[in-house]
Amino acid sequence: MNSKITLNNVSLVFDLHKNKQSSLKEMFANAFKDKYHGSTTENFTAINNISLEINHGDRIGIVGHNGAGKSSLLKLLCKIYEPTKGSVSIKGNVAPLLEIGAGFNPELSGRENIYLNGAILGYNKKYLKSIEEEIITFSELAEFIDTPVKYYSTGMYLKLAFAISTAVQPDILILDELFAGGDAEFVSKAQARMKSMIEDSNIMVFVSHQTDLLLELCNRVIWLDHGNLIADGEPQIIITRYLNKEFQ
């Protein structure tokens, strides 16, 4: 099956409720104003009317300053956010490596969190049972796997989370920077695994501030600025434009 991602005129808008009163007097004054003049809200456009087609075999890099809309775009692709306007169509199995370990319960053991986090990622219990030992071996945490993760160091936590998140080969791989947690030896092993996943995936979409890595891994680069798609094309050309702030 050929994987594909299509975005048609996609916008993502958040409502920001202003609540900056510094005193009780101002709070009552603003409440009175809201009652008779409507509530005070402000819209923030994270993604502004973007259309994209990402095809089987594409390795897409995304660049832009902080707040440009890069993470918002990834979350739209992972179905974490639904578009305010437009549509996102995805053909293929998506693996999001965004906020690794976000679904962990600190009171549960490492082994129990394999099943909890795996379920959040969409894996059934039977499948998780079949890959449990591989996850434990890769994480290097066999000695601590039945210990509650609240007692884990940050490095141990990240090792287990990464091992779970990368246990399955997806059609579409969504990355927000390469893994950089844990000791140097594990980081090297983790990055080798991620590069293998990138090579084996049908589509990869990758946000990074490391332009040399984008040049190495990607065949297309997308430049976002304030939610707008500025450019989409050959990596060296787009990255040079981005670094030189050549908007036209």
| CATH homology superfamily name of the largest domain | P-loop containing nucleotide triphosphate hydrolases
CATH architecture of the largest domain: 3-Layer(aba) Sandwich
* Count, helices: 8
User: Largest sheet at a glance?
Assistant: 6 strands, mixed
- Average of per-residue pLDDT values: 86
- Shape field: globular
| Parts with pLDDT < 50 across at least 5 consecutive residues | none
SSE class: alpha/beta
What's the domain count?
2
Helicity range:
25-40%
Number of DSSP strand runs: 9
How much strand content do the residues show?
A: 25-35%
Key features of this structure:
248 residues, alpha/beta, Rossmann fold, 2 domains, 3-stranded antiparallel β-sheet
In words, what does this structure look like?
The chain is of the alpha/beta class. It has two domains: 126 residues, Rossmann fold, CATH 3.40.50; 105 residues, Rossmann fold, CATH 3.40.50.300. The protein contains eight helices and nine strands. The strands form two sheets. A six-stranded mixed sheet has the order 5-6-7-3-8-9, with helices on both faces. A hairpin with a 2-residue loop joins strand 8 and strand 9. Helix 3 crosses helix 4. It is globular.
Q: Could you write a compact summary of the structure shown?
A:
With 248 residues, the protein is α/β, with parallel strands linked by helices. It has helices spanning 24-37, 70-77, 110-120, 125-139, 154-165, 184-200, 211-217, 235-243; strands spanning 4-17, 41-55, 59-63, 85-91, 94-97, 172-176, 203-207, 220-225, 228-233. The chain has a six-stranded mixed beta sheet, sandwiched between helices. Strands 2-1-4 form a three-stranded antiparallel beta sheet.
